Amino acid sequence: QINVLQAKKKFEILDAMLSFMHAQFTFFQQGYSLLHELDPYMKKLATELDQLVIDSAVEKREMEHKHALIQQRSLSFFQDFSYDDSKVEFNVDAPNGVVMEGYLFKRASNAFKTWNRRWFSIQNSQLVYQKKLKDVLTVVVEDLRLCTVKPCEDIERRFCFEVVSPTKSCMLQADSEKLRQAWIQAVQASIASAYRESPDSYYIE
């Protein structure tokens, strides 16, 4: 019985090994058949992938070109609309009486202290503004000879200056440091011009 058992082990082990090898062969053969059926689809995907890479590179170049154009346009826009020396100059002897004009932010005198953009001008020794171009003028300072002007640094906004009269003060903000200095100089020049034009009547008043 022992000899029979020993002889039986030889072919049973070999049979198990052969069955395992057949199973492995069947598994990989089925996998190959399945993937072989997918081969055309994978080749198609590879072609589409190559085209996607090309399209992506083209789109990237186009976006970089557009970005460069936008930067160039933005730079030219700011250059075109930047205030050069001629645009911020004031003229106390202007024929129309307007010494200087332009947009400024005005801080409201209410409790909320909101800032509103208004069209300001210095004319007839007065500081006035309009909400819109054709609106009625609102007088901020009736007589510039009775006021002073000074830059303000210790507030939450940049490029601010204050026009102070005996009855009230007005906080204003320019768009740049150059504009702030121009407005301050325009107010000071208007005050000096008003004194030169009618000193006697002012002293009588």
Automatic annotation (TrEMBL):
SMART domains assigned to the protein according to its UniProt record, in alphabetical order: PH
Pfam families noted in UniProt: BAR_3, PH
Activity modulation comment: GAP activity stimulated by phosphatidylinositol 4,5-bisphosphate (PIP2) and phosphatidic acid.
Stored SUPFAM superfamilies: PH domain-like
Matching CDD domains: PH_ACAP (cd13250)
Entry's Gene Ontology cellular component terms: endosome membrane
Keyword Zinc-finger: yes
Keyword Lipid biosynthesis: no
Signal sequence interval, chain numbering: none
Molecular functions (GO terms): GTPase activator activity; zinc ion binding
Topological category with respect to the lipid bilayer: Peripheral membrane protein
Keyword terms, alphabetized: ANK repeat, Endosome, GTPase activation, Metal-binding, Repeat, Zinc, Zinc-finger
Domain PH: 97-192
Cell compartment(s), UniProt: Endosome membrane
Comment block on domains: PH domain binds phospholipids including phosphatidic acid, phosphatidylinositol 3-phosphate, phosphatidylinositol 3,5-bisphosphate (PIP2) and phosphatidylinositol 3,4,5-trisphosphate (PIP3). May mediate protein binding to PIP2 or PIP3 containing membranes.
Function: GTPase-activating protein for the ADP ribosylation factor family.
PANTHER family per the UniProt record, alphabetical: ARF-GAP WITH COILED-COIL, ANK REPEAT AND PH DOMAIN-CONTAINING PROTEIN 3 (PTHR23180:SF407), CENTAURIN/ARF (PTHR23180)
Protein name: Arf-GAP with coiled-coil, ANK repeat and PH domain-containing protein
Organism: Poecile atricapillus (Black-capped chickadee)
